[in-house]
Amino acid sequence: MNKLIAIFSLLLLVTSCNQQKSTPTNVVAKVYNYVLTKEELKANVIKTNSIVDSLKATQDYIQSWSRQKLLYRNALINLDNTKELDDLVRKYKEELYVSYYKNALVNKKLDTLVFEKEIDSFYVKNFTNFKLNENLIKFKYIHIDPSNRKKYNIRKLFETNDVDDKQEILTDYKGYNDFYFNDSTWVSLRDVYSRKPDFPLLSSFDLARTNRLIEKTGVDKSLYYIYIKEIVNKGDIAPLAYVKPTIKNILLHKNKIKFFNQMEQILIDDAVKQKKYEVY
Predict the structure, then answer these.
(1) Which of 249, 230, 137 is nearest to 191 (CA)?
(2) Where is the signal peptide (predicted)?
């Protein structure tokens, strides 16, 4: 990027060699009284591995910056009344600062805005609102070549809940890269098919029992070992663990509003005490 800026600085120096007034060394471009510095250019142009692409990106930014400044200057000159715009800018600036300030305060208190007991209480009080419109499962699977001579060893290790057995599969048996071992998390069966369209369809018979391993054949005749640990059917109440992120977001939004209202009242009360807030 420094080389590119140096190239543009040199080009600009050549094209402006007839100017009597000297230009600061850190200036890349100038439009009337507006200047584009090397630092601003470097901060706004994305680096690439190609010098040609970087050079073009730099040139494009300079041209865009120049047009913007020219249009802005003309707008200041030709608009009859800019008071309304100035008022809007001031208002937007205030709102932007307040928004950033609020976000900064909330980010510091995110962990304390929602407590586990609040989530539990909300779930209990709104229990009937969490009926499922799809099936949820806790499961794991591994996808292997049916010709794999060690497939029965893999099945035996896969069927256990031992962490060392899982690690042995991953380190000692090669020839596959498609597996899912996180059987402690509830997942939507619909999402499974959406993310992996070639995943074997599980029938109602497959889902009739839990804590068992089933074998399924893929469309390409490959082999799937699938272990169904738990199931929650459509129409049942969703487990707390599954809806917890949703509940937390609901409570977080609610508590943010409450926190901001309390903060604003504290600021007002403090200003009144210091006689810095008066209404006439």
Answers:
(1) 137
(2) 1-21
Q: What are the residues whose beta carbons fall under 8 Å from the beta carbon of 37, sequence distance 6 or more? A: 26, 27, 28
* Burial (Cβ within 10 Å: 0-12, 13-18, ≥19) of residue 243: buried
Residue 64, both tokens: 């865009």
Sequence-ordered list of residues with C-beta below 8 angstroms from that of 172, at least 6 positions apart, any chain: none
Let me know: does 273 contact 130? Beta carbons within 8 Å: no
Q: Which residue has the tokens 């509003």?
A: 257
- Give the dihedral sign, CA 172/175/177/180: negative
Sequence ranges of the domains in the chain: 2-78, 114-126+239-273, 132-232
pLDDT (tens digit per residue) in 42-88: 999 888 788 888 899 999 999 999 999 999 999 989 988 888 889 99
**Strand 136-144 with 223-232, pairing:** antiparallel
Q: What is the pLDDT of residue 20?
A: 44
Site of tokens 């003309």: 74
CATH code linked to domain 132-232: 3.10.50
Are 230 and 137 in contact by the 8 Å Cβ rule? The answer is yes
